[in-house]
Amino acid sequence: MTRVLVVEDDPDLSLALRTLLTRAGYEVAHADNGREGLRLLFAERPALMLLDIGLPQLNGWEVLERTRDLSDLPVLLLTARGAETDRVRGLRAGADDYLPKPFGNDELLARVEALLRRTAPTRWAGDSFDDGLRLVPERRSAVWQGHEARLSDIEYRLLQVLVRNRGRVITTDQLLDRVWDDPEGTGRERVKFAVLRLRRKLRQAAGDEAADPLEAVRGLGYRYRADGGDEGPAPDEDESPF
């Protein structure tokens, strides 16, 4: 049975959501504050999360940020805030869909079904990949070929985005939007330098100058190679990070 996590502090709405989803055939876990929501996220490993923004202890933005450190779990934001700026903020922060309150039962179920239908099985940050990479969210680090590389927050988020899109080229502008929240594309050189520093740390951790799974694709962007190959830097890279 597909498990859905509902993080909502309004008792009437949370009861209605649990009843609706249970009748639709889902197994439902519920938290009424952000901290409990994160605990259940670890414990239950749901297939999807319905997340309110106005939560006690940790608000929805904080829960969403920490969720994205842990997994690519599909997240549907539920909030009374219907302003375009809030919708844009939610989507840029990593939410997959956004549904302002009040909403109809049929629309909610349709959005839940659509998200589950179009998303691949969730990858969790603590999982190991078949090429020997493991992300360690609690330490903001990566274990690569058996050795740990300590990363900055930016380097960790950069690696997360590339890993979640393994095999696909992610453009510089897309990385600015997803890692730096810089949709206007200013300061594009920062992506190049951050990738260079990240690649260097992975190589140093492995003790092999050729061993890193990242690749610069000339004129397009960067990608995480699904095979974690041993190609060296792309010919247009400048090895100096400064």
Structure description:
The longest helix has 18 residues, at 189-206. Strands 2-1-3-4-5 form a 5-stranded parallel sheet, sandwiched between helices. A 3-stranded antiparallel sheet has the order 6-7-8, covered by helices on one side. The chain is an alpha/beta fold and 242 residues long. It has helices at 11-23, 34-44, 60-70, 84-92, 105-118, 153-164, 172-179, 189-206, and strands at residues 3-7, 27-31, 48-52, 75-79, 97-100, 133-136, 141-144, 147-150, 170-171, 214-217, 221-224. Strand 10 and strand 11 (221-224) form a beta hairpin. The protein has 8 helices and 11 strands. Helix 2 runs parallel beside helix 3.
Largest sheet, in brief, is: 5 strands, parallel
CATH topology name of the largest domain: Rossmann fold
The rounded distance between the terminal residues' Cα atoms is: 51 Å
User: Which strands sit side by side, in order, in the main sheet?
Assistant: 2-1-3-4-5
Domain Response regulatory: 3-116
Domain OmpR/PhoB-type: 124-226
Keywords: DNA-binding, Phosphoprotein, Transcription, Transcription regulation, Two-component regulatory system
DNA-binding region: 124-226
Q: What is shown here, in short?
A:
The protein has helices at residues 11-23, 34-44, 60-70, 84-92, 105-118, 153-164, 172-179, 189-206, and strands spanning 3-7, 27-31, 48-52, 75-79, 97-100, 133-136, 141-144, 147-150, 170-171, 214-217, 221-224. With 242 residues, it is α/β, with parallel strands linked by helices. It starts with a strand and ends in an 18-residue tail after the last strand.
